């Protein structure tokens, strides 16, 4: 009867940790056998308790003696991979950056079958489309809706961005800088994803007949303070009302600079007349089709995500109560904790 000399405590602890971490039952079985031998059990007892042959127990012990814990690890099942998987994954990432039509195909979007066809052509392989489909997540690829964009470049983009950056750098109590923009509030709710029971799609009741309301907002570039006005019309009067509100709050300011988009109401004759009479206002127009320059766009996104998306308000008055409550509590933005505010706090 073979008896193994007990292992040191540190070595036994290492085996125990490996047992706790391993997800392979065969690996755990081998580790358990060695641990039992390490704690003084003989090979016959280990063989009986684990229902393993004595030759297997001895073989596992030899593996551990020669290579340590690494010698007991399970090998990957099946034959060794013959396909250059890493190279194929890298090629998949490169292919999705291209349009299939650039490579001579008729389709405007990639499909699993088309990717497989191109991969097999490039690697002279015979991979099945289901294999490529299984590898796509490993390549970091997902099936996602594309976003439309315009290939119109503003020839004065660098100049406009530089002026905005200079104004932001000089922002202080006497020369505040604001991000200004307007947003549409629809009574018909914007539809968005939500948690629900698997297999059940949530239903959001809509009023049927849509109504609209408009907000003009200004976000202080440093303090995050938010000011806003509302109207039933999205016109020059709404923008001028926003300017008037800023003028009242910053009477002592030497200048008030606004970063805003190129919407028509910002350049109307009525606005030009108002600006001629109120010299302290300076308008810096952002480059065309560059909404990310205007930080208040994130505030509007938060407004929709918090209030208008999937809302269940039956009339515009009820919806505007939530909108105004959000706008009153959102300062300073970001960082006001608006996501967790309850309706009664409005």
Could you outline the blueprint of secondary structure elements for this entry?
Blueprint: H1 9-21, H2 25-38, H3 43-50, H4 54-67, H5 85-95, H6 112-123, H7 129-135, H8 157-169, E1 177-186, E2 212-220, E3 226-231, H9 236-249, E4 256-260, H10 269-277, E5 281-285, H11 296-308, H12 316-329
What does this structure look like?
With 346 residues, this protein is an alpha/beta fold. It has helices at residues 9-21, 25-38, 43-50, 54-67, 85-95, 112-123, 129-135, 157-169, 236-249, 269-277, 296-308, 316-329; strands spanning 177-186, 212-220, 226-231, 256-260, 281-285. A hairpin with a 5-residue loop joins β2 and β3 (226-231). α1 (9-21) packs antiparallel against α2 and α6 (112-123) packs across α7 (129-135). 18% of the residues are buried. The model has no long low-confidence stretch (mean pLDDT 89).
